[in-house]
Design brief:
homodimer; about 220 residues; Four Helix Bundle (Hemerythrin (Met), subunit A); DNA-binding; DNA-binding transcriptional regulator, GntR family (chains A, B); DNA-binding transcription factor activity (chains A, B); transcription (chains A, B); WH-like_DNA-bd_sf (chains A, B)
DNA sequence: TTTTCTATTTTTGTATACAATCACGATAGC
DNA sequence: GCTATCGTGATTGTATACAAAAATAGAAAA
């Protein structure tokens, strides 16, 4: 697999990772030439990467001033999760009314995938199936724009995710919540399903809290 | 007022306007050198502008392929408004519980501003006060991230807005809806206030429909 | 000491040059 | 005739050079 083209993208990912790992202080200024030297590229692709990072919200670009790291505080992560929960809840609410038979099948398939992966203790498979399940719900909302924005927020939260934390007892509980959501959807109870999803995401958020508390506001990168 | 620095920003605004006005076909490829010549700049700031436009969702950048115009269809605009309505409704729901006394004062001030502007027939003042009113609600949600994302979506919708369309009878109706929302908030009825806001935004969306229908999928820029 | 202005240095923004990749058409093979 | 391969031109990605703006430091004045 060639991992070549688009230096800008590669740099963006690396810096994203570094910021999430706490390698930079919040508000810290990023020096373009220094970073360019560090990644062994010119300033051109580096500046592109900085713009991409701004789109993700990890840096703020101030004209004629430079790029400043915007590392989300714990408060902000909670805020982001509050919105994530509401958006997923909205997806479920709309999906309950709009889901197509084909989508319902894929939803059930994903749910089965979660069950099997969990019973066999395959964490990676569980996360994959879990991702499919949520993805189908976004799609079934019938609002492609909402689906895109939800995926975008998910991606924005992902660098701060630590899967291992889920592996305790949370995984099994998560399964049960999925089942409850799907049942509510089957009964056509949109609001109930939405509420369950909101709680489901909020519960997820707590594992992030633990991560943040563990890593702290300032941690070293590998 | 100096309108100088940051050619990239200027270009971005101009292209944004052009796309909104229908100067480009959806899916049309944007040639970098041609655009650079057109705006009399080099490719460097032009490419920055294209990235900014991608962040707004008006173009899609495909690696090694180029920039392609993504003009929202009527369907997509409706989808965007559906989400906008839900986000504003969420802001109201949270604000009902979390609003501070100071914010409540500013909310009432903005509402008064709307009334006065309307009674005096000053449309511009109305839009300004209306913007303040919604802005205070975003802020009062107590979720700064939600507020930012809502503002971002508002900005993303704004190029497709045509104020004149509101001036018919919609303006007065809008006022009444504001009043109803604020009253529900005062009574602490979060869900009711949220529902009112959702309807309020949806009603707004219909004026956009009219605009789209009038301008058509392909219109000429000024 | 504090402030303000200025000269210098640093850093950002833009233009240009070069390299890599893609699109397209011609040609060869089946 | 159809497909595949290759070569050429066009287009995107990156590096470098230059211009403009801001940060810094130092000196002069209050």
């Amino acid at each position: 697999m060639p991992e070549k083209s688009r230096a800008a993208d590669r740099i963006c990912s690396e810096i994203e990772q570094a910021i999430a790992m706490g390698a930079y202080e919040d508000g810290e200024k990023l020096n373009e030439v220094a970073l360019a030297r560090q990644f062994d590229v010119s300033r051109t692709p580096l500046r592109e990467a900085l713009q991409s990072l701004q789109a993700i919200g990890l840096v703020e670009l101030i004209p004629n001033r430079g790029a400043f790291v915007r590392r989300p505080s714990m408060t902000r992560l909670v805020e982001m999760f509050e919105l994530m929960g509401e958006m997923e809840a909205l997806c479920v609410k709309l999906a309950t009314k709009r889901i197509t038979p084909a989508q319902r099948l894929r939803l059930q398939e994903a749910a089965r995938g979660c069950e099997e992966a969990l019973s066999e203790g395959r964490a990676d498979d569980y996360y994959a199936a879990n991702g499919r399940l949520h993805g189908v719900i976004y799609e079934a909302s019938g609002n492609e724009f909402l689906a895109e924005e939800t995926r975008r927020l998910l991606r924005r939260l992902s660098p701060f995710r630590r899967r291992q934390l889920d592996v305790t007892g949370r995984l099994r509980a998560s399964m049960g919540e999925h089942a409850a959501i799907l049942e509510a959807m089957d009964r056509g109870e949109a609001e109930a399903a939405a509420d369950l999803m909101r709680v489901h995401i909020t519960a997820l958020s707590r594992t992030y809290d633990q991560y943040i508390a563990a890593v702290g506001p300032r941690a070293e990168a590998g």
